[in-house]
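Retro notes - structure team

What went well: the batch runner handled both jobs without manual restarts.
What didn't: labels got mixed up in the shared folder, which is why I'm recording both outputs here explicitly, each with its sequence directly above its tokens.

Job 1
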Amino acid sequence: MNKFVKTEKTRNSGAAAWQVIYTDLMTIIMVFFVILWSLNQGKDIGVSETIGDVTDRMLNLPGDVLFAPGKSQISPEGKEVFKELFYDETGQVLNFQTGGLTKRMLIIHGHTDGDGKKENNFNLGFQRAYAAYEELKNYSDDISDHAVICTHADNTAVQEVPDFEGKISEAQRQTLRAAKSKNRRITIEDKIINKFDLE
């Protein structure tokens, strides 16, 4: 009788250990699939979420320095800014050689403030981005194969423009001017793209 009880206890403890191991294994597998699922949320297979994979650096250039108000021709001061940033005797600043597995792209964004008609601002944003692209061509022969031009009519503002009502004070006027000035800009985004995503 004692022998039978001992054997039954041994059998039950072995079964309990197996169930614990099985439960742990299933929990690990479930966690693994939850992680995989969460990584794929919001991704549409076959459609790129952005123009590239990694933004290496982003450069904001104030439009008030580069352009006269309402104009798309780069000012002499603006040309000096481009020269200071992109002139390089070694040819490394705008070197697009990446070794074949990735591709380097410059996305040039032309931003305006919200004054005037939206259509006119889209056009001005594009013309300014194109002028920046033309200026960059002075510092790289390869840029035409590595540039994308975007235009924004105040819909990606770096600073929210306050919506003052009624007669505004001089301090409020200065705040408005500063906010609008920050939104008038050229942004040059340096992206590294995984070439496998392009196929």
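Job 2
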Amino acid sequence: MSTATLTADAHRQDPPLNPVPLRQDAAVIGLVGLAHGTSHFSHLLLAPLFPVFIRDFGLSFSDVGLLMTVFFIISGVGQALAGFLVDRVGARPVLFAAISCFLVASLVASQATSYAGLMAVAMLAGLGNAPFHPADFTILNQRVSPQRLGYAFSAHGLTGNLGWALAPAFLVGITSLADWRTAYLGAAVLYVGVLALLFWQRDKLRTEVVPRSTAASRAASGGDLAFMRLPVVWWCFAFFLLSTMTLAVIQSFAPSIMKAVHGVSVEVATLTVSAYMLCGALGMLVGGFVAAANPLSSDRIVALAMAAGALLLLVCATGWLGGQGTLVALAITGFAVGVGGPSRDMMIKKATPKGATGRVYGTVYSGLDLGFALSPALFGLLMDRGWYATTLAGAALVLGLSVVAAVGVGRRT
């Protein structure tokens, strides 16, 4: 080896492990997190004011429940289709269109005079909610450094939980100070502010569209739907469906179960969901560090987190812990499930073929919407019969089955 070569080697420096500045990654993560928060806010655009609609429009619980079913059906079907659109045109324009749908939905809600108007709101909000996961994860996977993706997925889940927490306080709070129509005008102003900020920072949300192959090569590979032949995609779908069914049971029935089984007050019973969601947000924060430190073990981390949650739910179903003990155990369940959230998204990333991020995330996350649509109806039958312990045990069972799905993803990635 020549002296010149040795000298060059001695002065050559390895490239930094993470050349992208933290500020740049943090800006992308913050903007996508803000957008995701508006999505979860819109999940509860109608539900907190159901008692008002029942009173003002003479509706039944079945009537208002159907609004949420329509929301999640449109969101679920639209989410699978939106993934194709994101891969074709990029995530940024789709994201802007989605938030615009929320803005229009809020304006329509502020002028609604009948059940038909509320149904239009549910349809518009469901359409707006559809593209978020394929758009968000396409931006994060393309614009955030690989070493910081675990933290990005953690922040993404955290902001979603905060959106859920904000919506009831925002809508009910303004309604109590003015009226519900003013509350929806306030929501419209909120969406305008978010849309303006994202548009101002739009350069940070730009994604590259993967060049489409020739017609011949697409035909040989199976075309745009080739990813649907991969078993791992459907194992991911099954995981989201099952784990979301458990979350829907907690959101829909935990207060009623606490009140009926343990005789706690309405205030304490309502606190159950808040405690679960807040601890879930804390778990996601911790889970971001876990995912970043163990990127190759994401499926095992998810399986362990869901298994811990399922065991805690089974203990709650026994009634041995009493009212306060059950409240604490459910909160810890939220934390355990939250810890697995960032690793869950890392697990999906590893299972996604190159160039199909939008399509895979859209298809997989449509299982989330399906879980939200099916679970209240299925477990509501148990609740109607007064089988409260069985309802919690059933939620534990489906969460346990999600462990099997997570292991299935790991084995097939």
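One thing worth noting from job 2: The chain has two domains: 25-149+159-203, 227-413.
We'll revisit the folder naming next retro.
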